[in-house]
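Morning. Coffee machine broken again, so started the prediction first thing and wrote up yesterday's gels while waiting. Chain of 335 residues, entered below exactly as on the submission form.
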Amino acid sequence: MKQKLGTASYSNIYTEALNMMMDVIKKELKLFGISYDNWFFESSLLAEDQISEAIARLDACGVLYEKDGARWFRSTDFGDEKDRVLVRSNRQTTYFAADIAYHLDKYQKGYDLIVNIWGADHHGYVARLRAAVSALGLDADKLHVVLVQFVNLYEGGQKTAMSTRGGQFIPLSAIRKQIGSDAMHLFYMMRKYTQHIDFDVELAKSQSNDNPLYYLQYAHARICSVFRQMEEQGYDYSVDTAELGNLDEAEARALMKSLLRYSSILSLAAETREPQVLLEYLRELATDFHSYYNRYRFLVEDEGLRCARLVLAAAVRCILFNGLTMLGASAPERM
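Came back before lunch.
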């Protein structure tokens, strides 16, 4: 096609098509609540000759050799299972050479931490990339590769067959339109990224306790309803008049213990980069609140006890709101 159209025409069509595709991708990601600060194009590596620069730097380190007309990287010296080709016998560089240049660019920008998010099928690629980073004299400990397992999509109780090779897939936009961004965010975080996820569309749309989004949002809305009822019944709410010593019920103590765990849970989720830790905590907190709510009345005549229970409810509402927000979901006041 390039020969038929000519270099200039082909380049114009290519650029226009690329821009159209990127506009669609960016628009959909924005609707999903995702925004990237920077988009990196592999073509920039070629335009700026960064691939040749990376290969030359490896050569200067004495880790390349010639074999069968190709240039090889002696990656086995750095823990890889076999050596890797960087330049084929036809003088074309490999994808691996481009990946090395890309990561060299990242290191040259001075980042303290470099995180790659890959599909689990790329697990065999980790060793060779870390080998290249080490061979370049860079700190391989700065590079963290997160291997994410696949998601199985279920609709109507049936697993949906998808294949990238066969062109069979369901776009993100189609699922988002069915269940909304809130549900998608939480369902993707129901399990650790190293585990397979069975994404049940019907469950995501259901109003049941098994749906984590509904369960958490309902707990938040329930607390908001209590405070609306307080105003409707003409009660005042003051932290100063709350007699917290009256919160001696077993359910209240369990709820307060759950609240005290929030800070450590946030730290753990951030340090391990595992948001499902926060999601699971919020579900436990909501369970503790529902248990307390179902057994005790909040709007009692005793002002000190009433305000104490409302203080406890307000604390739970605050954490549910903050937690849902951090997980990319909304916290409605009415449901």
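Residues 7-31 form the longest helix (25 residues). Going to sketch it on the whiteboard this afternoon.
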